[in-house]
Design a protein that fits this description.
Length: about 750
Amino acid sequence: MLHNLINGLTALGTGPGVAYLVAGSLLGMFLGVIPGLGGPVVLSIVLAFIYHIDLTGTLSLFLATQAGSYFSASITSILLNTPAHPEAFAVTFDGFPMAQRGEAGRALGISATSTCIGGLIGCAVLVGFIPIIDQLPLLFHPPEYVALISIALLLVGTLGTDAASKALISAGIGLLLSTIGPDPVTGINRYTFGMVGLFGGVALVALFLGLFAIPQMMLVFGTATTIARQDMMGQEIDSAAPVELTKGFGKQVVQGIIETLHHRLALLRAALIGVITGIIPGIGGFAANFMSYGIAQQSSKKRELFGTGIPEGIIAPEGSSLAKEAGGMVPVLGLGIPGGVGNALFLAALTIKGVKVGYGFTASYPTLAYETVWVIALGGLIGTIAGVLTAPQLAKVTRVPGPALVPFIMSIAIVGVYVADVSFFSVMEVMVFAVIGFGLRRLRYSLAAFGIGLILGPSLETNVYLTHKVFPGAHFLERPFADVLFAIGIGVLALKTVQLRREAKRADQPFDEDDVLLRAEELRRRERRRHPYPLLALIATSAILVVTVTAVVYAALQYNLTTALMPEIGGGAAALAALWRMPFEIHAYVRYRRDRRGSFEVLSDRSLPAPVALVGAAAAEHSTAADIIEAMGPAPASIGSASEFEPVQDKSWGIHGQYTREVVAFLWFAVLVGACWLFDFTVGVPLFCLLYGLAATRRILPTWPGRVIFAVASAATMGGTTYEIQHLLHVAFTPVVHF
């Protein structure tokens, strides 16, 4: 083990591996501080450029970018109370209150030390697991693999969504898309319809850029505000006043470092919780940090002080953040099962480089697992140290208006996807997946399950086929281990459904308000929160149902049983879940229409007595007389005029033009694609940046000189960057039209 560990460090130090390690750490640190750009967005962009990098460089760049982003994501949590990553939510509980007391440096020192040491502990545990990674696949036969992949899809898919059926739909669509291209068993092309670009299947880079990068830019453009005033979904938020760093910042950082070392047991516990939750697919990430925080609070003698700004409240979530990434490498390398979006993207990177994980991995790549350990450890260390040194400057980055980032991210994304496959068809795929990803994100479907379903689809199909051949019929149920795993999968789905329903009921706490108008408005607000986009949800569910049913029928009619098996499984699961959701979506849309009609009737009929007007508004929320009477409650002495009622707006069409701006953002992306198609990337990209800077920045740059300077600077920067990327990678594109 020690020999391979040294060889892993030596392999990392040869060639450009160190340069990629440092570059990835700094890239992750810089973009990690920006809400919405860290995590999947930046990793999907990095994924586009690994085709032209060797395996060690790919490992260094990819994992270092991921590891370097964890501490910087907490900078905005501590200084602005705005988390840049989901994992950084728990840090706001004690980090921001400590910073408000004038101890921002202390909080950042505790956060940095906890993240770094927690990552090192996680890497040490990963080193202990590496010798048994090759033994893990021996515990699983095809039926167990099918059950394990199903559990991973359900666990990951139910995170971040509000309904288990949405997780099933997301995973089913991902599995269905994974069948496009050659069947791994029979070699027959499926769903290609004569398009050469689909003969190799869906492009992974195009998928992830379309799901994460472009929709995020649409959301950011929609809010048209500074980064500090928008969350990871691109929604405008009421952020607290930023904390100003005092002159004693450096001394406070050192104090925080020393203080963290005095809480060794708390840090060790947090790191071990992170490792354990990272090993279990679907538990890490957001849940790991909250679990660590909750356990620390319950086991502390100062539990009543949690949330007021104490060191233990920062150590607990930060100590587990990077540690769970190290733990997540165990199922990725040993079983090929990712536990989250980041791990899924890493697995996609290994797939692109031709690395086969699972049985025989350490025999085929004896030092690769140890290189992984070194990259995570050193990437986290470099990103943390650089983040602490540049924290005041990184905090200022969040004052940049979000729309100012759009031309840079979109340009890098489109250039990256082209140089990855050297095919303009992949660029068109990005446009398609951008529309799909934006709609699914708005409706709170699981993009993680979507992407992981696409990546694990071929492995699942192979094991389903082997299960069918080796254990025909229901004989696979004779394997006790498989039965236990299938039971766990069903139990996970049932428990998650119950949990989501309880959370929905918990959100609807009794509303003690005597004012009848306020009570009716609160009921409407709760309904809008449960179903914010009724029309869009109904259209999307109907489209999913039609497409999946059509795909299943087409497979049954055009392919043999073996070739059609996986499309029927993936498409059938999504179709059944969509069919289950249809009555709920129809009911929500009918209630919305009735609410809207009832509100407008109240507005238009000024002659109605106030109680009657109230019934008209409340009828949109209740269908029975008893509910209406309950909603009316005791009538106050005086009720305002009917003009105080505001009509309920369909939020699927935006608020204050936000939806319109999001559509405009996609149109700008279409302009970028069209310009590159007509004039080549080295001309199309700067032309797009120039037009965008002049026409789309009026809200953030009100003066003409400012817009001209921004337009020229962005065009020159991205034009030069595009030229250098194509020149270095020896990639050229012939424009469609020559002038």
